[in-house]
Amino acid sequence: MSTRHILLGLLAGGPSHGYDLKRRHDDHFPQARPLAYGQVYTTLQRLVRDGLAEVAGTDADGGPERTLYRLTAAGSREVGDWSGQVTAPAPFVTNEIFAKVVVAILTGGDPAAHLRAQRAAHLARMRELTALKTAPDASLATVLAADYALHHLDADLRWMTTTQDRLTSLTALTAEVDRA
Amino acid sequence: MTNHPAPLVAARDLVKAHGRTPALRGASLELGAGEIVAVTGPSGSGKSTLLHCLAGIVRPDAGSVTYGGERLDRLPERRLSALRRTEFGVVFQFGQLIPELTALDNVALPLMLAGTARGAAQESAGEWLERFGAREHAGLRPGELSGGQAQRVALARALVTGPRVVFADEPTGALDSLAGEQAMTALVRAARASGAAVLVVTHDAQVAAYADREVRLRDGAPAGLEVGA
């Protein structure tokens, strides 16, 4: 995830200050980890250093003075390039559930029991997400984020079911070989 | 299931074979009043047969099915079909609407069969179509509806009599994901509003996520733990 490009994307809508960017980030990515203020300011400073954003003035708005930032032409090109780039389909298989199943097999654990318990946890989370996205007042951002998470959890569940079937048929085969 | 102390529908140790093929081998399930339960499992795990036994559509070879404490599997056919008409609503994968009737008359039909006059039945049917976002299709015949529209009409028909239990067998199986989502959202909202319990059979975890809990079947019997909210 590129916080840098997301901030550039948010700045494309017009000059903003750090607090506003953080708030808009959390609105547009409702299921993401909320952005820390510190991270917003450090990233903004780097964007200025790299010529992708610049200080557009200050805005007091009744409260303390806040620095406004805006996109530069280079920043606008950069965010356009980034959002148009095809993302490399995950080149490595790194997933904690996958790793735990492999380790359970290596250590003589009970991968089937583990997969059943994991299914329960996945479905509980899927229920929460379904309730979120079907609430009458759900925002588009919430629906999109919940859809994304639901489809990925569903993909995990499919893999888990296939793995369970594979392990069951392997166990049956091993038992047959042992008997022979 | 702390909210549902006495089950409305309960199946115990059901056994059922289709010819020589066993479909259920000791399946049990409880459904509380107003509860939404998903029955999931791979093809051939017996989930549709379980639904058919619970809804009184087929009788099990062994085991018991109770509805409100009464043995459903022992009821004479006439009482069973009266019960199915008044207390149960059923939806299948392909809505199974009557092709010659308009959407409105399809929904009004269960009320008319139960003795409601045509005008009153149509009025009520119109309200249910509205709740399922299908009022504008009232005058169309099933052949003129999309899969999603037809399924929402079928759901309205299942709920029009105010059933205490809705049985839905793969209700989104023939729909694309957005139409399926609309159908499930409408079904859950309507069931919650009317207090109907829902038993939904599905192979799709995203559909199961609309339910309060999941009962997973494998080879006609429960597969390990029940997965609850």
Automatic annotation (TrEMBL), chain B:
<dbReference type="InterPro" id="IPR003593">
    <property type="entry name" value="AAA+_ATPase"/>
</dbReference>
<protein>
    <submittedName>
        <fullName>ABC transporter ATP-binding protein</fullName>
    </submittedName>
</protein>
<feature type="domain" description="ABC transporter">
    <location>
        <begin position="9"/>
        <end position="227"/>
    </location>
</feature>
<dbReference type="InterPro" id="IPR017871">
    <property type="entry name" value="ABC_transporter-like_CS"/>
</dbReference>
<dbReference type="InterPro" id="IPR015854">
    <property type="entry name" value="ABC_transpr_LolD-like"/>
</dbReference>
<keyword id="KW-0067">ATP-binding</keyword>
<dbReference type="InterPro" id="IPR027417">
    <property type="entry name" value="P-loop_NTPase"/>
</dbReference>
<dbReference type="GO" id="GO:0005524">
    <property type="term" value="F:ATP binding"/>
</dbReference>
<keyword id="KW-0547">Nucleotide-binding</keyword>
<dbReference type="InterPro" id="IPR017911">
    <property type="entry name" value="MacB-like_ATP-bd"/>
</dbReference>
<dbReference type="InterPro" id="IPR003439">
    <property type="entry name" value="ABC_transporter-like_ATP-bd"/>
</dbReference>
<keyword id="KW-0813">Transport</keyword>
<dbReference type="Pfam" id="PF00005">
    <property type="entry name" value="ABC_tran"/>
</dbReference>
